[in-house]
Give the backbone structure.
Amino acid sequence: MSWTPTREDFDRYMLPNYSPQRVIPVRGEGSRLWDQEGREYIDFAGGIAVNALGHNHPALVGALKEQGEKLWHLSNVYTNEPALRLARTLVENTFADRVFLCSSGGEANEAALKLARRYAHDVHGPEKDTIISFRQSFHGRTFFTVSVGGQPKYSQGFGPVPGGIEHATYNDLDSVRELISERTCAIMVEPMQGEGGVTPADPTFLQGLRELCNEYGALLIFDEVQCGVGRTGSLYAYMDYGITPDILTSAKALGGGFPIGAMMTTDEIGRVFVVGTHGSTYGGNPLASAVAYAAVETIRQPEVLKGVQQRHQLIREQLETLNQRFDCFSEIRGMGLLIGAEFNERYQERGRDVLAAAINEGLMLLVAGPNVLRFAPSLIIPEEDIREGMARLERAIASLTV
């Protein structure tokens, strides 16, 4: 019996923790998508900064097909060539000496937090266990990561949260100084907050965190799940700042659409993860690793990274033109192709209204909270798609009465 799923079937069969748009995309090519009715959309969302090379990219499709005819899964009782190939390229192109592969950003951050506490326990003693994070941060949906994240709405209603977690104010070094102590084992920070409003860190703030960690013997963890793998115009955002973390987490764009995550660190820190201390059933999966290797090798090419900055400038210019017409944004900010446009008082909390209007115009967008439009398109989105997408956004905003 043939059956075409509908949006109503989501409400019938799926848990209600999501509220997806009415359209159901069924096919993608580059930076464009088509729904069940054959209607076309320009994709400025990128699967929330995941589809770094757009849809149906030949390098990723080729890697998946080739590996799919060889080996799908082994478990970590054995290693495999694609996982080792991916780990090697990550080590050779970053500060890291060691890599832990997993299936998502939440898993990568969970591993990073556990590693930081284990290192502090083994090297300094069990009393050094406090983690400092930041308000409005987001680090995943596991109970540990959602508690470290600085948005209480995500941890409320699930019982007592893990202890030893403190929250400072992002881009406010004094607020960190008030909290840090000899008990602090790690500071976890996004070089650019994504879910919290697309807010880049001030260079002096990150430098200050590095110095405080050095002073107190704490580890500096960079959560680059959303801003890493070419998103800022460098392979990882720490390279833009010239500040090296002790631990770095990566996911989203790492697999270009295939679920994978990675936690990277140094030999010295990584040595405490001895056999049995941590694991992931699908971590290092050959399919995921093969696709991720193809993604990293494509994205790290100079012409791709240089193109990110060129596209950033074009999107920013287009947003400024929109602002001149509608007087709708109080600030346009971000790095590379993670850009936030914050609405002013005239359009206060109209983000989701703009999203709905944009869908009607054939444009897929994101928000970061109720008041910030978020743009995370493919790193190689054609300029003509940017211009056409912005024309559709202009029509969407014009359709709203303010």
Summary: The longest strand covers residues 329-335.
